[in-house]
Structure formats: structure tokens, C-alpha cells
From TrEMBL:
Protein name: Lipocalin-like domain-containing protein
Lineage: Bacteria, Pseudomonadati, Bacteroidota, Flavobacteriia, Flavobacteriales
InterPro entries attached to this UniProt entry: Lipocalin-like
Ranges where the Lipocalin-like domain occurs: 50-125
Signal peptide stretch: 1-18
This protein's UniProt keywords: Signal
Length: 138
């Protein structure tokens, strides 16, 4: 009987410890910093419940890949290589991260995306308005 009581108390303590360590504050949120330079790799959407991604057509053949640079100052710099000479055009705006939302504003135009994946090697976002998925690598 004494052993049964000890086991019951032990099981109850473990159960309470396991539930007390759970944090609902960051459900689905990653703690990897978002700041960094990301190279555009793929774009796509969800069709019939499945992700369909292709190599980013925005990346011009023979040129470096386009990029998104999210700086510590909350500046967002988008680099676009164009033309036969691969001329770089940079557009600067700002960004705000709120939990798993990323809002980028250039001029008076803002777009908000869900952060689908953020690791030390990848940023995958899904535009909340268009549903377009964009995958960047670091």
C-alpha cells in the first residue's frame, strides 16, 4: 500500500511538472532571429491541399539571385537583378515581425505574410492576401 501511494505521488508530480513546463505563449512561433540576408529560391502556392513550389522565375538566368535583406534596424532591402548586364536595383522599405506575421512596407504599400518556416538556413512565407508562398535561403 505504501509503495502504491509513493507511485501515485510520483506520477502526479511528473504530470504536474510536464504541464507546468508547457508554454502556450509561443505556440508555433520560432525563436530564430529573422534578421539576415535571404536569397530568393522558390515560389508557389497550395493546390488541392499540397504545396507546389517551383524555382523562382524572378531570378534571371545568368544573374545572381534576387534577395531580401532584413536588417536589425527594421529596414527591408529587396535586391533585384535585371537585364543583360544583371544590373542590381535595390528597393528599401521597413518590416515588422509580430509573432509569426511578417509585414513589409515599401512606400504606402504593405504586405503581410505568415512565417511558415524560419530556421538558420531558410525563411518560408505565405502572403496572407494572395496565398503565394516564397522560399528564401540564407
Amino acid at each position: 500500500m505504501k509503495n502504491r501511494n509513493i507511485l501515485f505521488v510520483l506520477a502526479l508530480s511528473i504530470g504536474m511538472f510536464a504541464t507546468s513546463c508547457s508554454s502556450d505563449d509561443n505556440d508555433g512561433e520560432t525563436i530564430v532571429p529573422i534578421q539576415g540576408k535571404y536569397n530568393l529560391r522558390q515560389t508557389g502556392t497550395i493546390i488541392d491541399g499540397k504545396e507546389v513550389l517551383i524555382d523562382a522565375p524572378q531570378n534571371q538566368a545568368g544573374c545572381p539571385g534576387d534577395y531580401l535583406d532584413l536588417r536589425v534596424s527594421n529596414a527591408a532591402v529587396m535586391g533585384d537583378y535585371n537585364g543583360s548586364d544583371c544590373a542590381l536595383t535595390e528597393t528599401t522599405g521597413t518590416y515588422v515581425r509580430s509573432h509569426n506575421d511578417l509585414t513589409i512596407t515599401v512606400g504606402n504599400v504593405s504586405s503581410t505574410s505568415d512565417i511558415m518556416n524560419l530556421t538558420n538556413k531558410e525563411l518560408k512565407i505565405k502572403d496572407k492576401t494572395t496565398g503565394v508562398i516564397t522560399v528564401y535561403s540564407r
